[in-house]
Structures are given as C-alpha cells and as structure tokens.
Amino acid sequence: MTLALETTDLKVRLRLAEDWFTVCDLSTLIPGRGVAALLPDGRQAAVFADRAGRLYAIDNRDPFTGAAVLSRGLTGTHQGRPFVASPLLKQRFDLESGRCLDDETVRVTAYEVKAA
C-alpha cells in the first residue's frame, strides 16, 4: 500500500529514552533529503525518508567538524546500506546504525523512528 503523503496526518516520531517524541509531519519529508529536528534536550536529529518510505534518524552533529549539518548531506547506499555523506568533509554515516563508513572508530547516535 502506498500512502498519499499530502492526505495523511501521520507524524514522524523518535524514541527518546522511554517515550516517543513527535518531530514533524510525515508529509514534510522529501525522499532523499533530510530535515533537522530540535530535540527537548537541545540536541538536533537529522531525519530522512527514502524512496521506499523507510524512515531514519541520526544525530545532526558532524563529529569531525562539530557543525550541525548532517541533515543537509547527500544520501546514498553502500553495499546495500543507506548512508548520508556530510556536506563538509564528506564522511559517510550509516543511517541505520550511525557508524561512520570511512572511520570505524566514529559513530553518531541513531534513533528508532516511526510514522504514527
């Protein structure tokens, strides 16, 4: 089943500790492009939807530069895994695990995300 995003009132939600936090309407996500969401503790999450409708969320802060820019990165796949490349130094971060594909010692927080 395909949802007509223009007609749905589904919300994108991230799991934070024991609760779900609403970050935006599903209709605001454009496949392949990220949005930044401000979290209650002041951090930011980068939220993405792919063309198949899967949702991903990782920390928006690039650990190599300290800038909150991952939501502006380019998305793609590497060996079947979805990633976002930082717009600054181009390191790639796995959207499911938060692991940096270019430096195994670095990772960002990956959030459980759903539309409900």
From TrEMBL:
The keyword Chaperone belongs to this UniProt entry's keyword annotation: no
SUPFAM superfamilies to which the protein is assigned, alphabetical: ISP domain
Gene Ontology BP terms: nitrate assimilation
PANTHER family per record: NITRITE REDUCTASE (NADH) SMALL SUBUNIT, PTHR40562
Stored InterPro entries: NirD, Rieske-like_NirD, Rieske_2Fe-2S, Rieske_2Fe-2S_sf
The protein, known as: Nitrite reductase (NAD(P)H) small subunit
PROSITE patterns: NIRD (PS51300), RIESKE (PS51296)
Keyword annotations: 2Fe-2S, Iron, Iron-sulfur, Metal-binding, Nitrate assimilation, Oxidoreductase
Domain Rieske: residue ranges: 21-116
Gene Ontology molecular function: 2 iron, 2 sulfur cluster binding; metal ion binding; monooxygenase activity; nitrite reductase [NAD(P)H] activity; oxidoreductase activity, acting on paired donors, with incorporation or reduction of molecular oxygen
Top-rank taxon, per record: Bacteria
